[in-house]
Amino acid sequence: MECNKLIIFKNYPALVLLKCIFLETPDIQKIRGELADLRTSLNGDPGHTISMANKLLERANHTDDLKLKAEIFHVTGLALHKAGQFEQALIWYREALLIRRNIDDKKGASLSLNNIGLAYHDMGQFKEAIPYYMEAISLKQELNEYKSLTATYENLGVVYQRLSEYKMAMEVYYKSLKISEDLNDDLLIALTYQNMGIVYLSWGNDQSALEMFKKSLELRKGSTDTIPVIQLENNIGLVLKNLRKYDEALGYYEQCLQLSESINYRDGVMAAHNNIGEVYLATGKYHDALKAYLKCYELSVFNLDYTEQCASSINLGDIYILLKEYDEAYNYLQVALSLCKNTEDKAKERQVYWHLIEVHEKKGRLAEALDCY
What we know:
Mean pLDDT: 87
Largest sheet: none
Number of strands: 0
Strand content: under 5%
Distance between the termini: 73 Å
Low-confidence stretches: 1-24
Radius of gyration: 27 Å
Helix content: over 70%
Shape: globular
Order of helices and strands: HHHHHHHHHHHHHHHHHHH
Number of helices: 19
């Protein structure tokens, strides 16, 4: 009911008319303003965002503004999602979707569907994400929401990549690319090239991957968003390393390190040190590799990044074996083994045991080596 169209109430009693005129109460207006502020604070403390969203929802429950309620559910879902509480986020996203479907808010429903797909992706339930992305795509096509459509295509493509369905991923990326080219949006095109490069890399087609990554990097020149540039230079370095162009790879990794340090991007700094170590390892420069791996390990400990700490410990164990410093190798491999068990990473745990077998054999501890099998 649109209360500004007063002509439809001309035969109503004055009291009813006044009630309708003031239906948009000051509190509703205030809730909308606070919700707008809340959306801008999602990069802050997720707990605070969730608390504020719940208070807004409690106030909104005293109104008939269903679209407003759906938006509050949506924002609360975003906060939970950001906090890593994916299952809880799904509950709130679904509440928003239910309301939006009931009021035929197709644009809002498409956003909810996309975010449900993202939550399933982040939970590692990739197949469950697909139908939500597909329905979001259908709605966005109906609404001619082309820029938003490319984002969902990219999300769907990433899911297909995760499922190793590379042909399907590439088909989706080409659809996204066509729209981005029609929109003349360089950053969207760059994103698609980057994702295509990752597919080619997974296929083992290093030359095509390199071409895609370089095209993406060229389009991102002048962008203020540094992290995608770092990721691209890292990927280019990886391809060049695969092609045994070690000096060129090292140059890209050093650029990654410099850029990451300039914006205090810790994940980028760790990745750069690790990848520099990989180049030195491949070229037989073991002491240089050791220095790089140690820097990565120290940062992982400081950042409480147990996944990276585990990987760095394995790398250090490996390099100390090559340097024939078996006691040091054993110490780092024990750290890695403990971390693998805590995170239940069975693949890395097996890798650690194989290294420990080698250490025990080199030290003449055959019984201990047998225990590792």
